[in-house]
Write a structure and sequence with these properties.
By secondary structure, the protein is of the alpha/beta class. The protein has 16 helices and nine strands.
């Protein structure tokens, strides 16, 4: 997609509310409109990162999913099939934050197929499971990426499993989800909506590593910190779901002047661009409004309805992005309060946001195996 067309995605989107925007994207919109979620629109051999190439063959796919209104959209991703010990189960990998622009899709950009993600996916492939790895809506396809909009991520993740089964009829209906950070949040949302959304599929369990939650507790403390870029992305994502939110109306002038990085860079570039700003340089008035925080809660916080399958929460005690105390406290309390499923918790002493993934890869794979078993 050319640069001008993409700028009508993020940059123009920052200036005005979403309004009426077609989300039938990539390939043939008319075709996508009449196909069911999980339908594979295209499939091509993928070149895998070195850590995964010996373990699996890969297909990059475009497949049908739905947005929050139920309208059909097109999403991209990878389906990885083990070369040996292949079993008939699927695990959906839900990736952590990569950015907002098309070049930030892990299926086509090895630089944002993070090292910790490679370790986690390798552990799943070594168990013989097919891995479906969604890019999420808006990464690799036109239209803005609904960053941190939990149900949007969840639908794309579940539909990637349907797509994998459409490519390989030997795969059973049983699946699990493994997600990190943004993907951990999406994995928990998927656990909530699965029975009403996944059709014939049977969710056996969800592992969420350092999942984003309870944004109303920590988001007010983000302005003026190295996490500024996450907040800018969250506001941009929120605007995809709530047309009363105009990101540029929230941002102070120095932050507005950096908005181009949302188009030209991915996560690391975005974080670097916004990290030096004080709270007053980031937001008008130096703080989020109560109205915006309320909208973030509505769209970004998991555990707002009952989980439907067993859950494993993994959290590093030295996490610099997702506070340990929020995961170990409010999130676990919220999940357990439903009394609907078993919620296991694995705190990892000294682990950071990323090392919590690498250090828990074996544990997570064993936990998923027990759910399948």
């Amino acid at each position: 997609m050319d640069k001008v067309r993409r700028r009508r995605g993020i940059a123009a989107f920052l200036v005005a509310p979403l309004g009426v925007m077609s989300l039938l994207v990539a390939g043939s919109p008319a075709r996508a409109a009449v196909l069911t979620p999980g339908t594979v629109l295209s499939s091509a051999t993928a070149t895998l990162v070195p850590e995964l190439a010996p373990l699996a063959t890969g297909k990059r796919i475009q497949y049908v999913s739905t947005d929050l209104t139920g309208a059909t959209i097109t999403v991209t991703g990878l389906v990885l099939t083990p070369k040996t010990k292949k079993k008939n189960k699927t695990v959906a990998w839900a990736h952590g934050s990569t950015g907002l622009a098309d070049q930030c899709a892990p299926s086509t950009n090895p630089a944002v197929f993070w090292p910790e993600a490679r370790t986690a996916v390798a552990a799943l492939l070594n168990r013989g499971w097919t891995v479906a790895a969604s890019d999420y809506p808006g990464l690799g396809t036109p239209a803005p990426h609904p960053y941190f909009i939990g149900e949007s991520e969840a639908r794309a993740v579940i539909d990637s499993v349907k797509a994998a089964r459409n490519l390989d009829s030997s795969l059973s209906t049983q699946y699990a989800i493994d997600g990190h950070s943004q993907g951990g949040q999406g994995a928990l949302f998927a656990n909530q909506i699965a029975p009403g959304y996944d059709g014939a599929l049977v969710l056996r369990g969800t592992a969420a590593i350092a999942p984003v939650s309870n944004v109303d507790i920590f988001a007010p403390f983000v302005p003026g910190t190295p996490a500024n870029g996450y907040l800018v992305m969250a506001l941009t994502g929120l605007a995809t779901a709530q047309n009363s939110v105009v990101p540029l109306a929230q941002l102070a002038v120095p932050a507005k002047q950096r908005a181009g990085v949302l188009e030209t860079g991915c996560l690391n570039e975005i974080l670097a661009a916004y990290a030096p700003l004080t709270a007053g340089q980031l937001l008008v008035g130096g703080a989020l409004s109560p109205q915006v925080i309320a909208q973030l809660v509505h769209y970004d916080n998991p555990a707002q309805s009952a989980p439907t399958a067993p859950i494993l929460i993994v959290q590093g005690t030295a996490d610099e992005a997702v506070p340990f105390d929020i995961t170990a406290g409010p999130l676990l309390d919220e999940l357990n309060a439903y009394h609907t499923v078993t919620v296991d918790f694995d705190p990892i002493e000294g682990a950071t946001h990323d090392t919590s993934v690498t250090l828990s890869a074996g544990t997570v794979a064993s936990w998923i195996a027990a759910r399948f078993g």
